[in-house]
Design a protein that fits this description.
The complex is a heterotrimer. By secondary structure, chain A is mainly alpha-helical. Chain A contains 23 helices and five strands. Among the domains of chain A are: about 210 residues, no CATH class; about 70 residues, no CATH class. Helix content of chain A is about 70%, strand content about 5%. The longest helix of chain B has about 30 residues. Classes of the chains: A mainly alpha, B mainly alpha, C mainly alpha. The interface between A and B is large, with 84 and 77 residues. Strand 3 of chain A pairs parallel with strand 1 of chain B.
């Protein structure tokens, strides 16, 4: 019975969130009730969910059938290590973000509190249901609810036309993905008539149909996760939504798509083919590089973070591709390593990306600016926001001893173990793939230095920034919660890998526990201690120890006197804020080196202009190569169909008459 | 146990204390090649002593990050000095970090420096930060690829295991290491702000990459950063020597081998310093826009080294 | 790693040949291209000597001497005189930018390594693993010919291709029959003379050695 306790706890949280949402709707204009009571309760529920997820990872799988749903298609629920892991991720991220939203939405104008409460909690509940679903019907119901509730959250500011446009694009691509997922489940159920995952696990598909399933799943879940070329909605929707919603979408919703992909590829399909992994690896690396290159040239804070999310999802997909390759060649321990790297990166990204989006939320509320060209110097006025932003920035740049480094380290170790593969082409592809991955991580550090430096450091680029207010108490609590997760995930990798072992055991029939256990809790040794080892606590102790020792030695041997003066700046007398780098300026070298990958439109001033100005716009090629032609084709087809619309009632009646006659003939 | 700790401390302190001497030696060789007398090999020590005594002058709008950075950078370099095997392999601290963590450590120091450069909000600071991150985002991948070649050969990413395998195995010429050596040399020049990427002795702000980041620092902060640069140069030389000329390194605890390994280390580092000075004197500084081509070449060479390993050495 | 010293030396020389092939791809100065070509010839000579020494095949000694005379002395000297008289020192920008060429070069290297693996299983020589590098050198030289704009680097690419073929021959079948080798050497020599004459003609007609001027000769 105890193995059912986590499942019941999870279902309880889901129902509680739905109840909170409806309660908010009942008293729709009572901001105090919604934000001071309902959101913090939702946050506590998130923490409970995280605990239940943690318990569920190491427990045995528990399944339940609810009598809801259509007759003959009840809802099947199941809690196994894979879903528990993603529920843990959802739980801790939701706890932090709900805490933050309690304070954030209080300060937002022009919103209906009850409506936001409903949409928000339905969003959380539907993401929970996606991870819990054990049959295709419930999965798709939850998926659609997730898409709809997040659409309404994205268009909270629906009076602005660009927000409406972003919402439309988001909904469109979400539905293209949903169709693909529907087809995928349809193929997998293999004419059995029932749609439960149990049946799909037992089904034996031929290689051709299994490939079709994989490609459909890649497209469908890729549309939600933001793989190339279906990523086009991410940089529009994430900035348009309010910051806590962006944090939830970037930190958690993208991971539900990864959950779906893992579920279909490793759990429901019984055998993988090696070239699927190559496709996934290639798409993942292309997504990562494209995302980070575009992030480097952005001038909007939230678009930069959105592109950075695309990059991180690309890295996760590359790790999954590697796991597929290893598993297809029956090298299960290595597949476990790659898979654990992918899952670790998922939870890391949930931690630091949510933190960074919440930081941008506080900045936006304090300054009402989103454009990097109007920010700067906020570290002095908003210390809490700035220092936790620093933790998030260092984590996302993949610097030791924080959590981003651990997942990248694990992934690089997995790449270096590939020479054992029997296929020589794949062996030689490894250096190229590794090169792409390390290039993406190095560029990510560049992008994050740009983000943090332009927003928080330097001189303020606008006068009003000098009146910026720091974050309120609830917001600070959220920062502490998420920042602490980043630090803990970085300092205790062995414990985390121990938990992830259950997931990898389920998916690829192998764990790293044998290798890890050899070296105790302090050292991470994924293969063997002679092969590679890393100890984050020792690392941190080393750095902190040296810093403290140096500081004390210098103070003791010399002195600690400080004088304040104007900035030196090589003796230039005038130092206005406009002399610093703009965001565009900081990204200019990347724009120049990687110019073929961007589509840049420029207007250069001519000598004869009366008001000379420089204008530059950087866009994505994919928009012009793929989406616009498809949109034009759709318009052309619609025009053809439009021939049928005359507006004359007689012709419409003739259509109905002809159809009726045809049906009578057929039925006869 | 105690002898391991002593060996570790001895090595770390030796590298930290002798790093300015290495810098002095390189500058002295450059002076001789340019037909000057030069200020002597102990000049960096005098400079450090002078800087530590002064009062620190900090801009009005400097944040705590600005004051924290020199200590963090110095701490990172001291930690790196404890990880790289120069005199002996199998140090107690080496399981804490492998080559990837070492590269991450350098990246941590560099990110802090870039952020501190942007902190005051001057034109040169942000220019230096931008250029430094540009060079880094191309040099760091190249450096990782260079490290992956010996790690594929030795089957490990732990630096002491790599050195152990290369040093104490039968004499063999690895062609892939030839590629990796050239790539490593190019990356070393870029990361340590040497000609042809950056001139460490320049006074023209628009040509600076690394110097532009530390324009606002003075007194003990500047001393710590300069010292950290010297340690970084020594560590890079030590890594190069350990990977590509690994003979003469002792195992930890072999006290009898210590004098021989110290002598070998000194000789190799001196040769490396002289070689560096020669290379600097023969080349001219490149335009900043040529730096990506230079580093791209290093990157390609490193990738090529790995490919050659797969073909010729499997 | 327990190959005999000669095999390791040959591997090292092969790697250096590949390095020079890449170097030629990225070089812009024509004088340096000629020096690299001479260096490649020298490496080939040393390689042939080592193979001759380790396998006791005396005809390879003659082959090595011929290579030295032709590729390290005569051809570079002819090319040097050519560029001095034509007064060109630098190439203009290549057709595609250099990083892209390098990327394509890497892909070419991977392809040739993989294609050569099954063939090198069949060969019975001591250094068959270098066949992949030889093929890569040939393809990289052809890539260099494709992406250049002036005529002289294209000729050097052609000669580098021949170098690669010679290296492939030594590594797969212990060199070619002497007659074949002498014939090829004569062909290359005569070819270079003819190229030289052509360059002067091209320069006379178009006042420049930029290849795209030749497009004006087509029928309109």
């Amino acid at each position: 019975m105890s193995s059912y306790a986590p499942l019941f706890a999870v279902i309880g949280v889901m129902l509680f969130w739905v109840v909170l949402g409806l309660a908010g709707l009942a008293r729709s204009h009572d901001a105090r009730l919604v934000f001071r009571v309902l959101f913090p309760l939702g946050s506590i529920a998130g923490a409970i969910l995280a605990a239940a997820g943690l318990a569920g990872i190491s427990g045995t799988p528990a399944a339940l059938v609810l009598p809801l749903g259509l007759p003959g298609l009840p809802f099947h629920l199941r809690l196994d290590p894979l879903s528990s892991f993603f529920l843990l991720l959802l739980g801790f991220a939701a706890a932090g973000i709900s805490m933050y939203s309690a304070a954030y939405f209080r300060k937002t104008e022009n919103i209906k509190p009850g409506l936001i409460g409903l949409q928000y909690h339905l969003f959380l509940a539907s993401m929970l249901a996606v991870c819990l679903a054990d049959d295709a019907y419930f999965f798709l119901v939850a998926w659609e609810t997730m898409a709809l509730s997040s659409y309404f959250l994205v268009i909270t500011d629906h009076k602005l036309p660009e927000v409406r446009r972003a919402g439309f694009l988001y909904l469109l691509i979400a539905h293209l993905g949903a169709i693909s997922i529907l087809l995928c489940f349809g193929v997998m159920q293999n004419n059995a008539g029932e749609y439960t995952f149990e049946l799909m696990r037992a089904a034996r598909l031929s290689d051709f149909w299994a490939t079709v399933v994989f490609l459909l799943a890649l497209t469908g879940f890729g549309a939600k996760a933001g793989f190339l070329p279906l990523h086009i909605w991410l940089p529009e929707a994430h900035p348009a939504a309010p910051s806590p919603v962006s944090a939830l979408m970037s930190g958690v919703m993208l991971k539900t798509a990864i959950y779906g992909l893992l579920r279909v590829t490793f759990d429901l399909l019984e055998q993988q083919i090696w070239w699927w992994g190559v496709v996934a690896l290639a798409i993942g690396l292309a997504t990562a590089l494209s995302g980070v290159m575009f992030a480097a040239v952005q001038t909007d804070m939230k678009r930069l973070l959105a592109y950075s999310s695309i990059e991180n999802i690309g890295i996760v997909l590359a790790a999954i591709g590697l796991a597929i390759i290893f598993h297809a060649y029956a090298m299960n321990v290595l597949a476990a390593l790659a898979l654990i790297a992918a899952l670790y990166h998922c939870i890391n990204h949930a931690g630091f990306k949510s933190l960074l989006f919440l930081v941008t939320g506080s900045v936006m509320h304090a300054t009402s600016e989103r454009n990097l060209g109007h920010l700067g110097g906020l570290i002095r006025r908003m210390p809490w926001v700035a220092w936790f932003g620093l933790v998030g920035t260092l984590a996302i740049a993949g610097l030791p001893p924080l959590n981003g480094f651990v997942s990248e380290w694990l992934l690089l170790q997995a790449f270096l173990l590939t020479p054992g593969l029997p296929n020589s082409y794949l062996n030689m592809l490894v250096p190229v793939a590794t090169a792409a991955l390390v290039l993406a991580s190095a560029l990510a550090a560049y992008v994050m230095v740009k983000f943090y430096g332009v927003v928080f450091l330097g001189q303020p680029r606008e006068e009003k920034l000098k009146q910026a207010q720091d974050a309120s108490n609830w917001e600070r609590a959220a920062f502490v919660w998420l920042g602490a997760t980043c630090v803990l995930l970085g300092l205790a990798p062995v414990a985390v890998i121990g938990q992830l072992d259950s997931v990898s055991l389920l998916l690829v029939d192998a764990t790293l526990s044998g290798n890890i256990a050899r070296s105790g809790w302090l050292f991470v040794t994924p293969a063997s201690p002679e092969r590679a080892s890393y100890s984050a606590p020792l690392f941190l102790a080393g750095i902190v120890g040296s810093v403290v020792a140096t500081f004390l030695l210098v103070r003791w041997l010399y002195h600690g006197r400080v004088r304040r003066a104007a900035a030196w700046d090589c003796g230039y007398p005038q130092q206005t804020p406009r002399m610093q780098d703009t965001a565009e300026g900081f990204g200019q070298p990347i724009k120049q080196i990687f110019e073929p990958f961007f589509r840049i439109e420029r207007h250069m001033p001519k000598p004869t202009d009366e008001r000379p100005y420089y204008w530059s716009k950087t866009e994505d090629h994919i928009w012009f190569w793929l989406y616009l032609p498809v949109a034009k084709a759709a318009e052309w087809v619609s025009k053809l169909v439009g021939v049928l619309h005359h507006g004359r009632i007689h012709l419409y009646l003739i259509y109905s008459f002809v159809t009726l006659l045809a049906l009578l003939f057929l039925i006869r | 146990m105690i002898q391991f700790v002593v060996s570790q401390l001895v090595q770390s302190l030796l590298v930290v204390v002798s790093a300015p001497l290495m810098l002095g030696w390189v500058n002295q060789c450059r002076a001789w090649l340019q037909n000057r007398t030069g200020p002597g090999m102990a000049q960096p020590y005098r400079v450090l002593g002078k800087l530590f005594v002064k009062d620190a002058v900090i801009a009005h709008n400097a944040s705590p990050l600005f004051r924290l950075t020199p200590y963090v950078v110095f701490g990172c370099m001291v930690l790196a000095a404890s990880i790289v095997p120069v005199l002996a392999t199998d140090l107690p601290f080496s399981p804490a970090a492998d080559v990837i963590a070492l590269v991450g450590l350098f990246a941590l120091a560099r990110v802090f420096m870039a952020l501190a450069a942007m902190d005051i909000g001057t034109a040169f600071g942000s220019m230096g930060a931008r250029r430094e991150m540009l060079v880094a985002c191309l040099a760091e991948p190249a450096l990782l690829m260079v490290f992956f070649t010996p790690s594929l050969i030795s089957g490990s990413t732990a630096l002491n295991n790599i050195v152990e395998t290369l040093a104490h195995s039968s004499l063999a010429i690895y062609p892939s290491m030839a590629f990796a050596a050239i790539a490593f040399l190019m990356v070393m020049l870029a990361e340590n702000a040497r000609v042809p990427i950056d001139n460490p002795a320049t006074h023209l702000e628009l040509t600076m990459i690394h110097e532009a980041m530390i324009l606002e620092y003075s007194a003990r902060h500047l001393a710590l950063i300069e010292w950290a640069n010297a340690i970084k140069l020594t560590i890079y030389s030590a890594i190069g020597v350990a990977l590509f000329l690994p003979w003469g390194i002792a195992r930890a605890g072999e006290w009898l081998m210590m004098p021989l390994s110290i002598a070998a280390f000194v000789a190799k580092i001196a040769a490396a310093g002289a070689g560096l000075a020669l290379l600097e004197t023969m080349s001219a500084k490149m335009r900043i826009f040529r730096a990506p081509e230079f580093l791209g070449m290093a990157f390609m060479l490193a990738v090529l080294g790995m490919l050659t390993h797969f073909l010729l050495e499997r | 790693m327990n190959l005999p010293l000669s095999a390791q030396l040959i591997n090292l020389l092969a790697a250096l040949m590949l390095l020079i092939a890449f170097g030629m791809l990225a070089q812009r100065r024509i004088l340096t291209l000629i020096h690299l070509f001479a260096l490649q010839g020298a490496l080939l000579t040393v390689n042939t000597f080592v193979v001759a020494f380790s396998t006791m095949q005396t005809h390879l000694y003659y082959s090595a001497v011929l290579t030295f005379v032709l590729k390290v002395v005569v051809l570079p000297w002819i090319l040097h005189r050519l560029i001095v008289r034509l007064n060109i020192r630098w190439d203009v920008e290549t057709l595609i930018n250099i990083p892209t060429i390098m990327l394509v070069g890497i892909v070419v290297v991977i392809l040739s390594f993989n294609l050569a693996l099954p063939i090198s299983e069949l060969a019975g020589t001591v250094n068959r693993s270098t066949l992949g590098i030889a093929m890569a050198a040939v393809l990289l030289a052809m890539l260099m010919m494709i992406t250049r704009r002036k005529a002289v680097p294209q000729v050097i690419g052609f000669l580098a291709m021949e170098n690669g073929l010679f290296f492939a021959a030594t590594s797969a079948t212990y060199g070619m029959p002497m007659i074949v080798e002498l014939g090829i050497a004569l062909d290359v020599l005569v070819g270079t003379f003819i190229f030289g004459i052509f360059f002067f003609q091209i320069r006379e007609t178009f006042d420049s050695l930029d290849i795209h001027h030749l497009e004006k000769l087509r029928e309109k």
